[in-house]
Amino acid sequence: MPRDPSVNITYSVVSEATFANRHSVVIGWSKPQDTAQVVANADVEAVIESTRFRFTMTKVATPDLKQSEAYIATAALFHIFSGNPKEEKVNLRLPNVWRDFWSEMAEAKKEHFDAQDRQVVKQIKALVRQRQDQELEDGVVLQGAFRGRNNAKSTPEATDSGHTERSRHVESDDNLKRLWAARSSRKKYEAMLQYREQLPMWKFKDHVLDAVDKNQVIIICGETGCGKSTQVPAFLLEHELSQGRQCKVFCTEPRRISAISLARRVSEELGDEKGDLGTSRSLVGYSIRLESNTSKETRLVYATTGIVMRMLEGSNDLQEVTHLVLDEVHERSIDSDFLLIVLKRLLKRRKDLKVILMSATVDAERFSAYLGGAPVLNVPGRTFPVMVRYLEDAVELTGYVPSNSETDRIVDLDDDTVEPEVDGLKAEMVQSLAGYSNRTKAVLAQMNEYQIDHDLIVELIARIAVDDTLQQYSNAILVFLPGMGDIRTLNDLLLGDPRFSAGWLVYPLHSTIAMEDQEAAFLLPPQGMRKIVLATNIAETGITIPDVTCVIDTGKHREMRFDEKKQLSRLIDTFISRANAKQRRGRAGRVQNGLCFHMFSRYRHDTLMSDQQTPEMLRLSLQDLAIRVKICKLGGIEETLGDALDPPSAKNIRRAVDALVDVRALTGTEDLTPLGYQLARLPLDVFLGKLILLGTIFKCLDMAITVAAILSSKSPFSAPFGQQTQANNARAAFRRADSDILTTYNAYLAWKRVCQANGGFGKEFQFCRKNYLNQQTLTNIEDLKGQLLTSLADSGFLLLTEEERRALLRLRFSAGGRGRRQQQFVEVPQRVNLNSDNDIVSTSVIAWSFYPKLLVRDIPGSKGLRNIGNNQSISLHPTSVNRGLFDARWLSYYTIMQTKSVYRAHETTVTEPFAIALLCGDVRCDLYSGVIVLDGNRGRFAVPDWKTMLVIKVLRTRLRELLTRSFKQPGKLLTAQQEKWFDVWQRLFSQDFNQDRTVNTITL
């Protein structure tokens, strides 16, 4: 719609009453306007004339006049601009609440046009079917005569299915050719084609298509920025349609944001309008966890690797897929490596399936040999020279001196395994600084490269912006950070620094931030403005910000590692490889000569960094893969995983299988149990996965899901240097139920109450400082809690109402954005959260979930504890709330760590013997001796009489049946009898246990 500086806008009050205010707006144009089709809206009446638009609120009202005026203004703006591609981002300028209203109207408009399209397609299909029926009658007669001449027997089945399939296939071929001819003649497609032809990948189009036609598998090595992620899938789609062949192309991406952004870009390049993606008007869609934006017409799908893995768990061998593109295979994720195992076998059954592996940095020859000698196609990038500088250069340039105050030296209370840095390495690094000032050498001698110095980054950016030789690189700066916590910290520092208050735009990029809030980061900043983009390693190869001229690389990324000592997976920040560093600095040279500051020393880069990233299969727990092997019915677990590109050790595979048998996810013959099927759907180790499942069944889900988030990250308790005693006392103040885990949960709840009291950021900061809590860790725990609840709902084990699901989706996109926002919290449905405040239920569910991780005190009152799994002597961590509790007989734990010659248990919880006898392991009840034996004498319990033993035995059997039904048929209501037994359990666990009256431990 053309600009009209003489437009006249008049607002009128239609009605004014308490909580019932309505407005109308009249827009008078100075010249006639194009009148677009008005989508019916029951709440707003629209009267459109060539020079006069009138919008009136009819069936909707607002609490006050200000909201009413804003409501009708947003509705009018939507009608005027929503169909104009040049003004497609106007909604981004609206406040959040009205941006949401815009999205609702856009969805209603989309549904309206989709319904029209469906009706048109229905009518066309009816006409086509009439013609097909007539052709079929003629075809059957001719086919019958032909078969008669060849003495062939004509059967109804043969004549019907065979000829119909061929005639439809021929007609489909012609339709596809016409479809593509029409789409490729669009003006928008032709305009975007000019841009595509400038990409390095375009010159290799014929080479790619020729290689795909001649080979079942090919490998494409393309430098960053060559356009492989957008062009190769599009090449395949265009080629197949132009040849009149049916196709379904899937392109896997390691991250959700990559799948969404690439799908949007390719949809635009193929001539689609804004909003067409995933509809019947587009050939492109995307599929990520909890969101599938596709239609029946979709022929190119960008999907996360996990989605394709779920598809492979079916039994149809991906029959609907003709081409499978695996992007970013160099990242060596556990999903992508396992996908290669499955594909090696699938390719033998699906000779028609085409597989294309793509990466920016890939060991091509190894992949080629692994996949039977697949050909490799190398595509150069389009990059300019990049000036490379390191940490010592940043310190020298800025004159930076780090703070040495005690309040800055924070340590985690639970982390006693950090090895001190070897002085020899520090000395060697300082010796390598020839030519640098003594001050720089002194600063680097005391700096810890393992920690990110956010203040130094701020000072470096400020210096680059004014330096005569470096200022030319400051128009668009990309900062690589390991996670959302560091993004938030640096974002707040930059927005709070007066040097960046004018002339600068700061954009965080992360999968938890709404795509609408991130789109501006990909655009050129307005004239006179400079931008800073804060991103994780997703910006390394997954997405491209085209105008970046300066990169600041912290040299860290976040990765999961399986700790052999702790026997659990943890998300840690660690140094990247040299290959990663090369990719990151390459981002600065896409449009002109660039600048890169690596915030680690040159000595570390040249001497200490690994060449390539370690494959996840060699550093993660294999329990999830073992379950997946069984779900995909690939055969033996050790045999299957041994077929990986970098196979894990047999010892680690055996350990994973044993752990799964212990928690009843696998049987002794390595068959999946109903519990195993449910655990396979959760992104957790089996113990935490079981905790969430049991927390759902026994109605203490908030406790369970919060504890799982805490144990998947790190303890929120911390201590400034020299204040360990005060920190321990603060921790003890939150003590609950003689449990380290519930103590941390109690501290989390206290923090949550402070945040929800609307006291502002200052109150939250004071609370955390007073109680020695790490504010950022608590925020990360809350973010992870939302992700886990989403996964539980996505698995189908927790059924959410539509309102609850929408609330969860809104929460997912409220975690980030520009500036600080009030902390949002996950709300667990009350129906599965009746027992989170019940200490007996909570401690019992923890023990049942972590079994066989149990400690027993054989001699009452003594300090000694024994691990029932291996009879090892164990002590408790010094910060444990149970450290001096010598009368506790049974304790569950989550982690055991070795410190020198001492084994210490972490995250312990005192557990009642009755709870252990009820649902832990297998038991044998000896009525004559009055003893319950646990798992072949791992533990023994005495009961006062045969009636008590009978009650335990019967209740145990009924609860086992209830659990089995819940795992087999999640979401299905319990039978009346099972409800009665659950009520018995609930009443029993709502009162204090009396050990003398129920169960006692027998000392072995």
Automatic annotation (TrEMBL):
Enzyme Commission number: 3.6.4.13
Q: Which InterPro entries match?
A: DEAD-box_helicase_OB_fold (IPR011709), DEAD/DEAH_box_helicase_dom (IPR011545), Helicase-assoc_dom (IPR007502), Helicase_ATP-bd (IPR014001), Helicase_C-like (IPR001650), P-loop_NTPase (IPR027417)
A Pfam family recorded for this sequence:
OB_NTP_bind
This protein's record includes keyword Cell membrane: no
Enzymatic class: hydrolase
Which stretches are tagged as biased composition: Basic and acidic residues?
160-172
Which positions make up the signal peptide? none
Q: Name one GO molecular function term.
A: ATP binding
- CDD domains membership: DEXHc_RHA-like, SF2_C_RHA
Compartment(s) where it occurs, according to its Swiss-Prot or TrEMBL record? Plastid, Chloroplast
Q: Which reaction does it catalyse?
A: ATP + H2O = ADP + phosphate + H(+)
User: Which key words are in the record?
Assistant: ATP-binding, Chloroplast, Helicase, Hydrolase, Nucleotide-binding, Plastid, RNA-binding, Transit peptide
Locate the transmembrane regions by residue number.
Answer: none
Please list the residue ranges annotated as the Helicase ATP-binding domain. Answer: 209-380
Tell me where in this chain the Helicase C-terminal domain is found: 469-633
Annotated region (Disordered) at 147-172
Official protein name in the record? RNA helicase
- Which species is this UniProt entry from? Trichoderma parareesei
